[in-house]
Amino acid sequence: MPVILGVETSCDETAAAVVRDGRELVSSRLLSQVDLHQKYGGVVPEVAARTHLEAINNVIEGALNAAGRTWSDLDGVACTVGPGLVGTLLVGLAAAKAIAWSCELPLIGVDHLLAHVCANYLNTDLEPPFVALLVSGGHTQIVHFADYRSGRVLGQTLDDAAGEAYDKVARLLGLGYPGGPAIDRLAAEGDPRAFKFPEGLVPGYDFSFSGLKTAVLRCVEKLDKPLPVADLAASFQEAVTRVLVRKTLQAQHELAVGRIVLAGGVAANRQLRSDIEQRSPVPVYFPSPDLCTDNAAMVAAAAHFCGRPLTLGDGVYSRQR
Ligand code: KG4
Ligand code: ZN
Fold it and tell me: Which ligand sits nearest to residue 138's alpha carbon?
């Protein structure tokens, strides 16, 4: 299927994109709801779903117009079917179904986590096998991809996801939502050795970030105001990055695979990107920052490489995975 329209509504970004052959990003449109949810300190599902509903048609038409294509130029339409917020996923699925039905196009369902990994196929020649470090707001996993279609999870977080830890620590430091980009910026001005935070002692390829978050909280409680936020951000980021890089390199070494792939919102983090690239003996792939966080180009790419054909009767994942 050469030209695919992808739709993404799993959380707080309404996104649509046109991708050719799973590799060539033709156009991408995205409406972020971050400003809307900022005052609540996190995403409010009902507000998110209603906002998707208002935005979705314009975003899809915007992507199609920017691509210089019409409905009849499409060979398929894809949407995220999970994991994500059920009310927001349903908005994207309804839109994709309507297009598929009225234009008589194949409808393709995409897993959001696989889609993050597939962002790495856009504008590159990447091919499996590789080890992926998937670090988003909801998931933290090390996954071995022997082929395009599915991966074997080698380890994952036992509690908070890496992005969740960034968001919670940012809130603690008064940096607002989402916390990742704010900590990324501030950490560049701080001393990563100012505070010694624990990595979380979990064997194998699993992770734990809740102890780290609590350690930052205890430290903040003891400190005088104003807080040395840049040093706290840098020391926290150092602890997160150290464990992510160490375990990913260990997996690459033990499986003897020739490539490492970073995926998910936290893959936009500058220290993570540069530390792993410096230390890896094999090439490291990571998407451009705007393709690390939620977008629809990755959905269209995933539809090409590992999508699942849907019927008009299919739904979204009803459980979180
Ligand atoms: O993949 P994503 O856009 O959404 C989910 O599927 O969860 O990831 C969002 C997460 C948020 O927790 C956000 O704070 C984090 O990615 N994030 C970052 C950066 N940009 C976004 N974390 C660290 N550094 C960044 N530059
Ligand atoms: Zn995501």
Answer: 1
The answer to whether residue 319 is domain-embedded is no
Q: Which of 88, 213, 286, 293 is the pocket-test mutation for ligand 1 (most atoms within 8 Å of CB)?
A: 293
- Short-list 6, 62, 14, 16, CA closest to 34: 14
Are residue 114 and residue 134 in the same domain, yes or no? no
- 159 lies in the same domain as 209: yes
| For the CA of 161, the nearest ligand | 1
Smallest Cα–Cα separation from 41: which of 176, 142, 149? 176
CA distances (Å), origin 146, targets 111, 124, 151, 263: 17, 18, 7, 16
Rounded CA separation 113/298 (Å): 10
Interval 102-147: pLDDT, tens:
999 999 999 999 999 999 999 999 999 999 999 999 999 999 999 9
Q: Is residue 52 part of a domain?
A: yes
> Is 76 strand, coil or helix?
strand
Range of the domain at 110: 3-119+294-314
Residues 44 and 170 in one domain: no
- Cis check for the bond before 83: say yes or no (omega within 30 of 0): yes
Residue 320 lies in a domain: no
